[in-house]
Structure formats: C-alpha cells, structure tokens
Amino acid sequence: MIDLRLHLSPHAPWPGLLLLSALVVLLGAWIYRIAVPPLPRWARRLLPALRVIALLVLVWLLGQPVLDRTAGGRPRVVVLVDQSASMDLPVAPGGEPRSRAAARAAMALERAWRGRAAIELLRFDSRLEADSAHSGAGRGVTALGDALEALASGAAGQGAGAVIVASDGAVNAGDDPVTAGRALGVPVHAIVVGQAGPDRVVTEVESPDVARVGRPVTVEVRLTSTEERGVPMTVRLTGDGRELGRATVVAPGSGAEASVVFHVVPARAGLAIWTASVDSLGGELTPSNNAREIALEVAPGRLGVLIVSAGLNWDLTFLRRALLGDSSLAVSTFTRERSGWRADLPGPHGVERDVRGDAPSAADLRGETVVILDALAPPDVSPAFDRGLAEFARSGGGLLLLGGPAPGISRFRSGTLGTELAITLDPAAVGRGGHPAPAPEAHDLLAWDDDAARGGRAWRAAAPLTDLVPVRPGPGDRVLVGSAGDGPPLLFARHIGRGQALFVNGTGIWRWSLSGADELTAERGRTLWRRLCHWLAEPVQAEPLRVRPERWLAAGGEP
Question: If you write DSSP's letter for every residue of 324-378 in order, what string do you get?
Fold first, then answer.
C-alpha cells in the first residue's frame, strides 16, 4: 500500500499564509467584480474563481509544500531520551537541568516531524524502559549500548526508520554504543545536551552485601574526571561519623576510569552506611556527584554454638567437624564422660583447649546463638540448665535436637523445655520410613547442588536413618525432610516463642557425609549442617511475613 501525503515545511509561517490568503480572496472579489465586456453568468463566476485559485497556489507555494510517497504507512522515528542521574546536572553552570533540555529537544522533534513520521519516545538509563514499571530504577548508570541492543531485539525497534538519542553522552556501563548503533541497520543521530566543564564523579562503589564484625571488607570506589591525566585526587571513605580510609589517585583522563580499593574492618554489628567521596574542584560543574553511599549488613563477629552431648558418637563427630570448619562459628562442646564432663572450648586464635570440670550451666548459654543437644535431655544436665534453655529458646535462640538412639527424640518430652516442645507421638507410624524425602518447599535449606536434578539424585541416594520415633508433626511445624512410605519426619522445625527448634529424628546422619558413590558427599554434608546452623541463628519474628529490600539505599525519586 502506497501512502501519499502533502504537507508544508515544518517552519512554514502559518499565520502569515492565512492572512495573505484572505487578502488574495478579497482582492480577487474586488478586482474581478467588473463585467466588461458582457459575459455569460457562469463565465463571470468561473473566471474570477480561477484567478483567485491561481493566486492562492502562488501564496501557498511560499510554505514549501512537500509530497511524501511512502510504502506501508508513515515512517517511524524512535527517540531515546537519557534519564540517568547525570541528566540532573545543569546544561551549563547555573543553567537548567540537562533532562529538561533533552525533553524540550524531543518535543521540538515531535512538532517538526508531525504529519511526516510517527515519533515514539523511549527512555533509558541502565536499560531501555519499554514501560513505566521500571521508571527510574537504574538511574545510577548510563548504558546506551545496552539500550540500543534492546531496541534492536524488541518490538519497539521493528520497523523503525531512524533513531535519535538525546543525551549528555556520559556512558559509564554496558556495551559499546557505536557497535550497537551500527548493528541496528538504521541511521542513528545524536542530540547532545550539556557542555563540558570541570567535573569529578564517583561513578560506582562496589562492596559485598554482608560483612562481619572484626573481618576486613573490600570496598572499591570507581571515579572519573574531566581533568588532564595525572592530576592527584583525594578519595575518602567515611561512616559512623569517622574516616574509614583515605587514598590518593591520579585523574585517568577524559573517557577513562580510575579506582581505589579500601579494606575496612567493621567495628559494630547492624546496618552500616558508608560514603565514598572525592574532593571537589574549583568552579566544578556540580558537586552533587562527588559522593556516593553504600549500605551493608554487618553481622556479629562469630556466632556462638554450644554442643552438649551424652557421649562421643559418629553423628556428633561428623556434625562437629562440619561446624568447626566454618570460621564464622565459635563452637564449644560439653561431652559427658564416666568421670564427669569434658569441655572443648575455643581458645585464642581459634585453638581449642580441653577443660574437665562441671556440667554446663545456664550461665554457659550467655553469648550463644545455637544450642545443640545430642541424645541428652536438658533435665539430665541440671534443672537450672533446663529452665535456662527454655528461656534461651523463647528469647530467640535456636535449638538443634539430635534424638540419638532409643528413646530418640521422645527424651525431649521431659522438663521445662519438654513442656514448650510438646512432642506428640503417632502409634500408627511405628516401623515406617527411614529413607529421606526432602520437602520441595525446603529446597533453599536442603539444596545439595546448584544443579537441582543432581541434588535430587544425591538425596535419593542418601542413606536411611535408624532409631526413628513415631512422632506426629504439629499444625505449625515445618517438615524439612520426611521419610518415604508415610513414615515419621526425619527433620522438622517447631517455633518456641521467638526461637525455633529443629528435630533430627533418628541416628545415622553421619552416613549423609560418607558415600562411596558420590565424591561430593562430604562437602554436601558439611554444607547442610552449616546452613541449618546459620538458619537457626536467625531470630524468628512473630510476624508471618518478613520483608527485606533488594537495596538498602535508593536515589531520590526512585519508586
């Protein structure tokens, strides 16, 4: 289908042409009103009309009319408008923001091409935004190359006759925009807003999402500058009202990026907000981009884990070996022997010391986050320890309860803690199960491999547990690992106040870390118990929903 369109020049003087046309009509009616020589009535009307039409054609030719002949309808022109953070800077010192100048240029394009082409406005920052759902979510960086690639592969780029980019040209992420523009196969034009001036910019700050008290954290600060290469710049990292680090880096030159690395040791737990900044220049375009903040969670130094066991056994050996290999855990062990209690306590520099003495008391629970009971009921240690352990769990502590041999986890039905646990037996489940069957909803805790299929095969090959107790899960319990054949659960969790208890029903968990058919079984076993221990260390909130933001910091105006 061929589309023919006649239109005037975008800059045609419409008011003047209309006024001149009115004058021509009036002039024609006045001049040709004389009927000499005598003419027929139709001729007296037709001839003046033809003369007026001829004059009108001459007048409208001043508007430079254009006849467009296009196939398939009007051509489409895609206008990409930069909305990254750099567009908030002024066009010139003290001038309007670059974003406003770009918007004005896009509107002028739309007016100029009205009637000749379909104009489609799209915005981009870290990516092309085809809708408003992502508006402003990635303003920290400008990835023009990625936006052009997305345009080429998306519906918006299909059938586009040309692309116009309105930007300040400050590209600091993504693929090369020149290569991406050539791959489009259509003309790409640029409208540059903003003038070059002296400016230092902290473009990005990289750090881990979490840190730990007393352990160094690597923070990398990246920055650019319009200064000549070699000019020294002072970069600072501050937080909690003090300077965490200072370094001097030379300006990399226009178009290049410099970086400086800080090694910071967090002093306290909680949410830490640090600011990376570079000294301002005299007469700088704007100082607003000379600093950037990061936020990271700082966990306590080491999580205290207390193990209280009725005696050495293979399950305890493999479990304790897995936890001792985690440097974020401080593991203390009390083992009951014939002559009394033996305490293996962490000493200086992680070296353990063997102490023989009294049974653990309620005072030993201070500073611990997880308590592991191995085949030992709390009242068998002492009534005070039993009461202290119940209070420990209600206050948010985690319990890992290994049932051990008969009577298994039913031993935890006695004492103050037993009242809190409220274990219920199910006689119908006697003699069933033993082979582990992980629950799908517990995949985040029980994943044995990055490959879900391979991890599933490892669980199916895992050895069964013995000495099962026919326990019935409660309505609020979370079954992590059931047993095949409708048997009792092998691993299930239960809330106690703000804390939670994880039951291990049966013996033989050491076999999960020792298999001749799987070379990764030892690492899988260690990973499982470390992950479960860290999970128990998190205090369980009373609310049914816990919400955590993807990023702790957001720029002004972001949704």
Answer: HT-TTEEEEEEEEETTEEEEEEE-GGG-EEEEEESPP-GGGGTT-SEEEEES--H
